Each structure stands twice: as C-alpha cells, then as structure tokens.
Predict the structure.
Amino acid sequence: MIPRGIAVLWEQRDAMLSGLLTTIGIAIVAAICAGVLGLVLFSLLISRVRAIEVTLIRLIDLMRCVPFMLFCYMIYYGLPSVGIVVGNLTAGITALTLYNAAYIAELLRGGYEALPREGIEAGHAFGFHGWRLLVRIILPPVLLSTIPMFGNQMIQIIKDSSFLVIIAVQELTFAANEIQATYYVPFASFVCAMLLYWLLCLGVEAGVRAVLAVAERRR
Amino acid sequence: MGPGDYLAIAAGAVNTIAVSLLTIALGTPLGLGLALIRWRKFPILDGLVAALVSLLRATPSVTLVLLVYFALPTVGLELPRFAAGVATLTLGTMAYNCEIWRATLLAFPIDQLDAARAFGMPRALRFRLIILPQIVRAALPALVNEMTLIIKVSPAVAVIGVIETTRAAVRIGAATYRPIPPFLVALAIYVAVIGGFVATQRMLERRRRVEALA
C-alpha cells in the first residue's frame, strides 16, 4: 500500500510541485500585501486621532474573532454581491491579505507599546514629526523587536493558505487531495503534503534566525 | 432567512462548540503529558516528541483532517466524520499545548522541588501538590488563547462534511442566493463564543488576584 503510494506520488511529482509553488507564491504575495496594509493600519493606529484609533481597534478585535475559513467564504461570496467579480486565486489572496493585515497591525502596536517613550520624545525634541518620525524613529526599533512575531505570522499565512482549497485554489493541499482522489493513495499524498508544509515552516524559522543574527551583528 | 435557517445555524453552532470542547478536554492533558516527557528528558522519547510537535505545529488543520479521515481507513481504522474532526484538532492543539506547558515547567522554580525532596515527598505527590497547581495558573492565559485558536480552526472539520457553524451558513447562503446574512449570523456566534472564553479567563484571573490578596 505505502510503496505504491510513493510510486504514484513520484509519477505525480509535477502536480505536487506545482501545488507547492502555488502555496509559496500565495504566501509570499499575501505576506507582502498584508505587511504593507498592516503598516498603514499601524500608522493610523498611532496617529493619535481618537475616532480613527477606536474604530480600528474595534475592527481589528472583530477580525481576531473570525475564523479564517468563514472570512474566506465572506470574501469569495461577498465581493460578487457588491459587484466585484474576481477569480478564486485573487479572492483567496485578498482574504489572506485583509485577515493577516489586522494581526500584523496588532503585533506592530504591541511592539510600539513596549517601546520606551524617551526615544520618541527625543525625536520630537529634535524636530521629527509625522511621516519622518514614524519612518526614522518609531519603525526601526518596532520592526526589529517584532521579527520573531513576523516569522510566526508567515507560518500562520502558509497554514491558512490551505483553507483556500475550499474555494478551489490549486495549492498544495488541493494537489494532494486531487492525487488522493484519483489514485486512492491518501496516506502517501497527505503525508507528503505535511512534510512539505513542515519544510516551508522550518525554512521560515531558519530565515527568522538568520535575520536576527544579522540584526544582532549590526547593532 | 427563515426561522428554519436560524435553527440550522444554531445546530451548526452546537457542533462547533461540541468539537471545540472535546478537543480542549483531550488536547490539554495530552499536551501536558508530552511536555512532561520532554521535561523529564526521557531518552529517545524526548527527541521523538520534539520532532512530532514541530511537524504537527507546521501542519495545516485542513491537510491533517483529510489525512485522518481518508488515510486511517486504509490501515483498518474507520472513524466517523465527527470523531475524525475531533482527533485532528486534538493532534494540532496537543502540539501547541505541549509548548505552553513546557515553557511553564521550564520556568518553575527548582528550589521548591528541592525543598519538597528534602522533606521526603514522593515524586507523584510533588507533582500533584506542588508543581501542578502552580503551572496551571501560569499556563492559563496561554491555554485560553490556544482554546480561542481551536474555535477559529474548527471550520476545518467542514472539509470532511461535519456541518458546523461556517458550513451551515454556506449552505443557507447557497440555497437562498443571499450569502451575506447567514455569514453575519455565523460571525455573531463566533464573536460570542470566543468572547465568552476570553471573559471567563479574565474572571478567573480576577478571582485569583482577590484570593492572593486575601
């Protein structure tokens, strides 16, 4: 049973590889978009405009109560009902982006709250305001202290991307499921997918360690 | 949405809560067991558990639930959908809980154990009376956080056909051609359930603080 599974998987390696590449592609695009959007949300959160701050915190808290699968369905079925028609892949990446942007804004805010106030006050005293204060004074230490959390979020994005199988995005779990359904080799195909996800996550962890080592050396 | 539709989502919510509670009840002690294996540094087992936890933490629940549901029958173990769903979520949360318990065990002050040993307290008693009450308190916030994560990944069991909250909402949306209202009802249910967990944790912490003062 299992040797046959491995043989079938080897024959179907192109399908599995294409699923893996799709997962990697989705995760990278979603991570970049969510990172940018998360930064924008974060800068609004610390803008000290009370109304914006309160609204955003409510929205972020709400987002943190929604299961990703429900959110994914809401985007997939919801966008067309407000007149926006997009493909499955775009809907999936949009859902991953919006969902994770809220988490990223929150983790940046956590890093910001833990920051000693003196540095920011000194920045004010030296005439840094608005955009320049954010980019030159606030962001460098906040980003540095949140590197490990970014790694965790990246792993979360990779894992969440498997939910896109429900809207027929042809990522790794979809590929494994197709092979399983066609050749009836469930054990080999899903274990193979699991090992590939593991590899991706170990890669992210190694990447985080490398970035931290570089940051430590540059200090 | 008619009254029947609300009832269908409520039935889904019962499944969401049942799956989540069973997973919590199984996954929390299993995680503690794994953490103890790593803490006591049993040879070979220690490494195996570390690898298993790392693998499970990297595996998406959707992939794992498909594996459990479709692959176990090939080795002669046929689980009904619901049981397969609970087994999957338990495996995942067990790995995360192992790390939570392990962190609190590693932070446990060793001098307390030395003192107990000096009084000749046997190992099982030391664990039950000295370690357990303290690590439960220390781990509680992280454990509750993990419980809310279980509720958030619980829709994964819909992939193998368990009708829980999300799946029930999707079905109603498909039948009525108006997907948004059932999704909002489902959303309200999740907010209430997850909010309930967080409120319970806050209450427990408050009560503990009052006890500490008294």
